[in-house]
């Protein structure tokens, strides 16, 4: 029998060709649609860790104390993985197809994002509603730079990113240059995208705000200087500075492991890296 191995390879290529073993590194806290978390891999945000174990259990830890977990296990098996599907469903699969656990909430086909946030909650947002139009990363092997995303790269709706703040993912940085909102490739110093906003008169107190409608805007005081012009259903949204150097908006919330407060006090909360509703 010379063929089984070939058909096995073909089968597995077929099964996994749409999945991406992630470019996850230490302190990554976002998983995107079609990315998988293999046994031994994890998402990390401060003291919080979401780990996929070899016994197929997905466990959320707070400082090494388990705080939430899926209960289905498979003894002696480590052919399991966690995937975020195009329907915004989180599934622990075993033996390629068999679903051992699922978040259960299936939504419209699209691109979703699973986030382990700074409060230790896991939540799925989507589908993706808007994205900046800059080219997809800069290419080249340097993109695998080992620089770790030690900083926040997610802005939640109801929060603001003030002029002195930034979102940073590896070599990409979203920051204000005066009142111009810029995605900076810090290794080359090149600006990949910008809003071209400026304030010609009076004092400038510019900030980026994500509304509960999913609309992203640059404001100076009450004056709107720029908008993504993309509104969706009201609810919790996220703006994420992605691994490819794009800023994208996902939402509203489709699932979370705990009850999330949907009430948004848009003007009361200021983004400060760890200040959440
Ligand atoms: C989490 O993942 C990182 C990077 O892959 C790894 O170095 C670390 O040991 C993992 N931690 C745990 C507790 O699994
Ligand atoms: C995590 O643990 C710390 C104490 O170790 C506690 O103060 C904090 O509230 C916990 N976080 C959650 C989300 O329960
Ligand atoms: C796992 O079991 C515990 C204890 O019975 C339960 O509290 C928890 O909700 C279960 N986890 C899930 C994800 O269903
Ligand atoms: C872009 O990154 C370069 C290199 O780190 C830095 O010198 C420059 O100030 C940054 N530009 C902005 C607008 O943040």
Automatic annotation (TrEMBL):
GO terms for biological process: response to other organism. GO terms for molecular function: carbohydrate binding. Residues 1-27 form the signal peptide. Coiled coil: none annotated. SUPFAM superfamilies: alpha-D-mannose-specific plant lectins. It comes from the Eukaryota. Keywords: Lectin, Signal. InterPro entries: Bulb-type_lectin_dom, Bulb-type_lectin_dom_sf. Residues 28-137, 152-262 form the Bulb-type lectin domain. This is Mannose-specific lectin. It comes from Dendrobium catenatum. The lineage of its organism: Eukaryota, Viridiplantae, Streptophyta, Embryophyta, Tracheophyta.
């Amino acid at each position: 029998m010379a063929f089984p191995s070939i058909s096995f390879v073909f089968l597995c290529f077929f099964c996994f060709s749409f999945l991406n073993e992630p470019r996850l590194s230490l302190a990554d806290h976002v998983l995107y649609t079609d990315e998988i978390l293999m046994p031994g891999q994890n998402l990390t945000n401060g003291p919080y860790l979401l780990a996929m174990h070899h016994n197929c259990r997905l466990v959320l830890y707070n400082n090494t104390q388990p705080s939430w977990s899926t209960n289905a296990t498979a003894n002696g098996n480590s052919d399991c993985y966690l995937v975020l599907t195009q329907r915004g469903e989180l599934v622990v699969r075993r033996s390629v197809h068999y679903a051992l656990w699922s978040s259960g909430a299936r939504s419209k086909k699209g691109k979703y994002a699973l986030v382990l946030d700074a409060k230790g909650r896991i939540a799925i947002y989507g589908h993706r509603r808007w994205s900046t139009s800059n080219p997809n990363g800069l290419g080249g092997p340097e993109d695998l730079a080992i620089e770790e995303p030690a900083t926040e790269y997610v802005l939640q709706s109801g929060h603001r990113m003030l002029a002195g703040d930034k979102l940073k993912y590896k070599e990409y940085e979203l920051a204000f240059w005066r009142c111009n909102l810029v995605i900076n490739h810090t290794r080359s110093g090149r600006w990949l995208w910008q809003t071209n906003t400026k304030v010609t008169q009076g004092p400038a107190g510019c900030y980026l705000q994500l509304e509960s409608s999913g609309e992203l805007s640059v404001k100076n005081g009450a004056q709107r200087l720029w908008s993504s012009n993309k509104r969706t259903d009201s609810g919790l949204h996220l703006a994420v500075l992605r691994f490819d150097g794009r800023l994208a908006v996902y939402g509203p919330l489709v699932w979370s492991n705990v009850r999330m407060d949907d009430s948004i006090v848009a003007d009361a909360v200021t983004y400060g890296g760890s200040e959440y509703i």
